[in-house]
Prior knowledge:
By secondary structure, the chain is of the alpha/beta class. It has 9 helices and 5 strands; from the N terminus they run βαβαααβαααβαβα.
Amino acid sequence: MKAFILSSSPRRNGNSALLADAMREGLTAAGHAVDLVYADEIVSHFLRDCRTCRKTDGECAIEDGFRSAFLHRFLPADGFIAATPIYWYGVSAQLKAFFDRSFCYYAASYPQSANVIEGMKGKRIGLLLSSEETFPMVSGGIVAQIQEYTRYTRGSFVGVVHGIGNARGDVRHDPNDPIGSARRFGETFFTRHATDYQIDTPRAGKVWG
């Protein structure tokens, strides 16, 4: 399987980047292909008004690395993992811009939008978070946002690893071992049990065995 990890902190040795790298190690150890990308290398502009910005042939007019990364790296992936520090109880601006910019390509005004939509659907989704604050609901807004994105794109939200740290690399000292958890998350990402029950979902009497 192929995984696309987007590390959205500009810090290459920051806490969420360390989690992303551990996730990459786990996926690689399990035999999967992994593409780890730093958001600030591909996204340098926010979404604009497509009605005035789009080129005459339907292509997005924003010139940065997003188009290539989204069409040729994100869309072909079987799984997507977003790594972000928690800023103001939400995702980083870089990660939000990545999601926002995808609108240029699944909007009906893009000539290949039907193909883009098919490529967005059905992915396994994972989330890696880092924050200084330990309050259990500090990640609530982000988890809800990613859960809704997953529902909207008919994917499967596989799980979350949340590391606590402030200074660069501080997450290594979290006694809950989020680095190890992220590595194990990568090892089991494409095989771990993931459900999103609805009231009429057929259910077995047991989850395991």
